[in-house]
Amino acid sequence: MGVKIEIFRMILYLSFPVAMFWISNQAEYFEERVVKRQRELLPPEKLKVEKQRLEELKRKLRLQNEQKMLTLYGVAPEKSD
């Protein structure tokens, strides 16, 4: 009796994660649920605006990093903006 219960538990422990992985990786499920929800939350028009804001933030951070490095190494930073 004890061996049968252990075999059942082992099958259960192994089959549950495999089943969840299989279910979550179905292409139809992904298309229906995730992609539709993503388009609801972030429509393409808003995506363009967010991308521009992100690029501007990257540019500002890059400039700040350059200024910090120039100051750190004793090179006089150029004035910009």
TrEMBL record:
One biological process GO term for this chain?
mitochondrial respiratory chain complex IV assembly
- Per the UniProt record, one Pfam family is Pet100
Membrane topology, from the record: Single-pass membrane protein
Location relative to the cell: Membrane; Mitochondrion membrane
Q: Which InterPro entries match?
A: Pet100
Q: Record's Gene Ontology CC terms?
A: mitochondrial inner membrane
Query: Quick check: keyword Metal-binding in the entry?
Result: no
Q: Write out the similarity annotation.
A: Belongs to the PET100 family.
Q: Does the keyword Transmembrane apply?
A: yes
Q: What is its main location?
A: membrane
GO molecular function terms listed in the Swiss-Prot or TrEMBL record: unfolded protein binding
Its protein name is Protein PET100 homolog, mitochondrial
Keyword terms: Membrane, Mitochondrion, Transit peptide, Transmembrane, Transmembrane helix
Name the coiled-coil region(s). none
